[in-house]
């Protein structure tokens, strides 16, 4: 639902930019469009937007410069830098979007850790997800992950979520079905 609203917002903002005189719009519109691209993980469009924003708008706008730092961290897969860059006092027109982006990245990172790690130190997990020890305990409980106490740092043992595998058919079965279908059409 939220993603669909962001797609609609992006289309509206792009249309406003295209229809504006000389193709130049306000810094507010640029920041909203930049934030929408970041939320959608559309880093290529975010990069091209940054390149086409006039230099006088970029340099005079701290929020756009901070958004570019967020973009750079996402582009370089720098999660700890991302959390530092996104902790900014955003204007009201992009604050909700940037908050949602932070939550989304945090959730994606937790899911990635669950699939990719058999164990991870708590301090590494905290840096990757920007969570406090209390938040980590809550996250681990909600996902049924184990936390092994011991000498600092504690060890987190993620459990891979059980997912149903799609029903797969062998190539021979698919070829047989295709042959039967073609035979049916010919007769």
UniProtKB/TrEMBL annotation:
Q: Which GO terms describe its biological process?
A: COP9 signalosome assembly; protein deneddylation
Domain CSN8/PSMD8/EIF3K span(s) in chain numbering: 27-147
Q: Which UniProt keywords apply?
A: Cytoplasm, Nucleus, Signalosome
Keyword RNA-binding in the entry? The reply is no
State whether keyword Chloroplast applies.
Answer: no
Q: State the protein's name.
A: Putative signalosome subunit 2 csn8
Per the record, the major location class is cytoplasm
Give the originating organism. Corethrella appendiculata
- Output the Gene Ontology cellular-component terms: COP9 signalosome; cytoplasm
What is the annotated localization of this protein? Cytoplasm; Nucleus
